[in-house]
Amino acid sequence: MSAMSNQPANTETVTVSVPGQAAFRDGMARLAAAVHVITTDGPAGRFGFTATAVCSVSDTPPTLLVCVNANTSSLQGLLNNGVLCVNTLAPHLQEVASAFASGRPMDERFASGLFERTPNGVPRLAGALVSFDCRVMNVIEQGSHKVLFCAVEDIVSTEGEEDALVYFARRYHTVAGSD
């Protein structure tokens, strides 16, 4: 008499491996993403950085998600200020994106573009495709990043600009919005 097994007769064992950091980054380089400059100002000071990890969460209430590396020099100031502006870039603002992605001092980063104030007092980049003036509502730690859930309190769009700046394969590219 043979023993009965709880396993189906024709099963395969599949081994799933967790990719390493380099493999993950290489994979993410194949994911095109809009380029944003995230700015903040308030009691903790003025800070900003370039980000691609931004997305819509909800339209009721309007909410964005912004992922920030925990080692970013702007993070603590951003959290202390509690407000930020997500500036989505057009191709003519590529140099601003590069300045905010660098290790340059904040004054030099902000000198790379023309900024005005949002209702929350945050620097908004003139000429951005769209700018979202936000209040940080919730922060979750996930791995090497902080995930910020941000309530959108004001939106300004630039009329006439149709092309977008995206980051793909570790380079900036232009995506045409219409002909």
Automatic annotation (TrEMBL):
Superkingdom of this protein's organism: Bacteria
SUPFAM superfamilies the UniProt entry points to: FMN-binding split barrel
GO MF term set: oxidoreductase activity
InterPro entries xrefs: Flavin_Rdtase-like_dom, NADH-dep_flavin_reductase, Split_barrel_FMN-bd
Keywords: Oxidoreductase
EC number: 1.5.1.-
UniProt domain Flavin reductase like: residue ranges: 28-174
Protein's name according to its UniProt entry: Flavin reductase
